[in-house]
## 1
Amino acid sequence: MASQEAPRNRKERRAQAKKHSGHHDIPLARPKQQAPTSKTLIDIAEERQLLQRSSNGSPSITTTRINLDGSITEIPDSSVSPETVSTPYLDIFLYTTSLILLHFTLTFLVHHQYGSERPSLLPLILSSTVYSPAPWLILLLVALLHPRASHPFMQLVFAAIAVVAGVWLVQASNDDPYMAVMKKAPALGTLWVWGVVELRWEIAAACLTMTAVWARWKGYAFW
């Protein structure tokens, strides 16, 4: 009796595996749609009032742990409120770095526009970073205000910053002497961009529109 020939390629191996798998013997049926007969974890949590946090400090689902036997263990660090916002150190670093680069870029542009000679890059970097308080002020403002930027009151603060800085920058660029523009423009431009970025898009668009309408009313040209 000749021995059975082994499969020679992947297609034959799949066909042989399908032939001997016996998948046709598995009964197929739709899962039952009836409600569970026993209590679920959601039901247990609702009975023990774990889905809501009461004002008297009772246990909640954010401060307790349900064990395998159904008992409840309170987390030791339950005094920390779940609404507590942790400091977003990475966001603060990225915002601060971006704003410092923006401040340097605007400094370079105003020196290139109004300077009597072409600006040298290294002295300009030192004067706008090492010898200037601007980076430390930017870091302080971002660390204090950025973590709370979504709060409605902080949105009003950033809206005021965006409008005031934008109007002041437009006015200074058109009316002030060039030496004043070289001093004011980098700081005002950085504040303006930061204020707009921190706002919701609807409020940011409204602030930009207000600045444009004010500039048009004052007769300032945009180009």
## 2
Amino acid sequence: MTNRERFPRYFVELDIDRRQCERVVPMKVLVIGMMRTGTLSTPSVPEWNSRSKLIPGDLGMQTALEQLGYGPCYHMVSNFQNPMECEMWTEAFNAKFHDKGRKYSKKDWDQLLGHCQAVADVPTAAFIPELHEAYPDAKVIIVQRDPEKWFASCRQTVMYFAGSKSFPGSLEMPILYYLDPWLCRRMAPMMGVLFTSLFGSETKDPVKVKENWIQGYNKLYDEVRSVVPEGQRLEFSLDQGWEPLCKFLGKDEVPKTPFPHVHDSENFQAGIRVMVNRMWIRAFKMNAPYVAVGLSIAAAWWWQRSR
């Protein structure tokens, strides 16, 4: 199986300016599920403990909702496919959490998410109260896991992209920031403001880091529960499977296939490696002419000096 067949999501490249878009399908489902709570299934991101042994991996809300007919379902991967959206999310985070700029209105959400019937994962999880106000008829599903296990999973997976003092991540990211303006240079500011907005200021103290992240995690869920009445939301545990989800969404027919669940211990590292390799390939193609010119000038200078 090729990488394109194994990780098709990472091979989608779009250049759609969502500011020029409008809503084309109704928003029906809002999932409050932070990263590493089971919001994606294919490609799955496995969970690792401190000894890198596999423990139960992701159950996929995005895949499940799309299977039930609520597609497209917005996910963080959507930003990797269409990086122009990162700029709008950066604006939205700065406005809500840092009082910089205008807070997003329904018109803005229709532009950014107008092609989707559902949302899951971050960055949308940080704006469920705003999205609930914009789309009051959309059903709200809360997917939460034990905060301690969630933090341990994040530390071993998504922190690769943090690039902060708390989680230095890969040395490749700062380099690619300059070499890959199409994705990395757009993604980095969004990821930075996402982490600081949800989990506070950076620190190298591991105890404080954990405290900040778990506090931010719980605060986000508390905010959603404070604005969405109990009768309008579903507290969903992913291991419950299809039945409670279908009942809440008014689906008479329950899928006979297993709820999306992947346990491949290599998927996370392999998937991220594929995406980063594609960044390098794109960076080489974009910068090769400039390198060639530089080498030509250097060669000409050396030839003149050696005469």
## 3
Amino acid sequence: MRFKASIRNINTFTRLTASLSSLGKDVWLQLNNEQLRFTVVPEQGSQVWAVLAIDSIFETYTIQSAVENNTINLRIPLAPLYRALRSAFTASSASIRLTKKDNIPLLSLTIITNNLTSTRPPTSITTTTLDPDNAPFTGGDAFTNNDSFGDPHPGFFPHDRETNITQEIPVIVLAAATVASIHEPQCPQPDVHIMLPSLLQLKAISERFTKLALSTSPSTNNRGRASDAPSSQSRLILSANAHGNWILSRWKEEKKG
């Protein structure tokens, strides 16, 4: 079993991981010759079944497995993955590969940064991130430095400082039989399709209505003072019609004396 890839778009990968982590603790990542499938199935709440093209995230991509279509199934803790990807924002290059240490499968993320400095030559850092929510790995988040910092004979002259940072995330390799019974839920064919505005526009509109509800429907706390919590009697109404009009309105239940 082998997987190695260089990351083309670290921002997209990081934002995708951040969105998934808000819905669940782990993601089932299925890798094969054709696509990347991200699946989050929490005990409660919304499920995610996302399929991405390989070149939307990775630039070079190598995968090998005994399973048909070179399929590899991984269960990955999202919080450590997000922290590792976030540290690669300013990296000049980043790569990821599946490896093993002490018989524990790991996703190894290596980033390379280049900075002009006059202090020390290249530095190499290796860290291992453990996640307590993923058996059989126990203990809190920990970072173990395996390599020394800096060169034993530093030269103090201006040069491009190249720093290699490797972060290792424990994962669980899922057998094909384990995931064979997991299927995307079948949804009925919709009667209508509603194309919503961009998420940024929706966010701006929602925030304005939230502020309006706070300013016009103050509630009181146990000390008799106005609280910032929105009133439970305020509702945001969404409506649309066949002419392409999409309407947001606020409804408030009037108290009857």
## 4
Amino acid sequence: MHILILAAFWIQDDGPPDPHSSPYILDFVKVLTSPPFNHSVTCVIPSTQRSWIGKAHLLPPSSHSFKGQQTKPAVNEQITDHLKPSYYDPNTETVHDTIPVPGHSRGTDQYWVLVPGTPATCVQLGLFHHQTLFPHSPPCSAQDFDLVVSGPNHGRNTTAAFALSSGTLGGALEASVCGVRSIALSFAFFTRDEGQELIREASEVGTRVINRLHTDWPQPSQSGEPFTGYVPDLYSINVPLMSGVSGMPIRWTWMLDNKWRSGSLYKSLPVTQNHETAGTKTEDPDEASVHGRSTAPSFKWAPSFADIWKTVEASPEGNDGLVIRTGCTSVTPLRANFEGLWGKEPFTGDLKL
């Protein structure tokens, strides 16, 4: 079957190619653009890792400061409302500040745009400012894109606890809200053996699934006959990064509704460690106690996934988290909204106070 995607728009949340945080990008794009797929691809991705950021857009912090406040903004708070992209050449693996021009050794059809923003921001710029980012390419509006592919994410995006925080899912949701079909693609690794053969096999499986979903995307009947099915806004694909995955089943799944229960995603640092590692000039603890003030606590990103694994192990069959643990690829159809409970008991009529 010949599947034509005029322009597949690709984003992800792990940033540009990096052996640790973003090891899948180059191989996936090579598979997507090579025979037998031969898709046309536009790449707009964050310039740095933006995992766990959901469908956020980064806005500058308030300029208001409280009386007596001396703490300078942290690095991740130094955000402005101006974005200046850079340009990545996947052939030389180099980054440039200027847009490639026709005839330059960096071909205008090959470069990727690196945006100092989130996956959702990349979607906005890629869909609505394509001509600005790629001035030497033919004009292209948001309606000219057949599909937005967000990924492949470095790690699984299964179960609600992960998916609701995912920048990869967030990018796909942003595209859906913009009226463009989208697919979030994630590779679930089980060991740190992430060789190119495994990545290529997972990329080929992911691309074949993307092709089928795009071709068979449900849509209401054009003949006027009643349509009784469901039309997804987006799909979430999770491919296990393991040898032989191409021979394993590809299963429709539902997203496991699980919670973080036993602890925080952060751990608090001891006061002494806080004092030594804060990175800014802090008040001496002894001096602070003399003046009747305590030292400010600090926290470190240190998520524990034990809760999540337990909920998956105890869950019924058919959900995304359990399916990928069997070595099968998971495909979850989704709608880009918060499903409401209005009209279902007891949420009917008026709320009585």
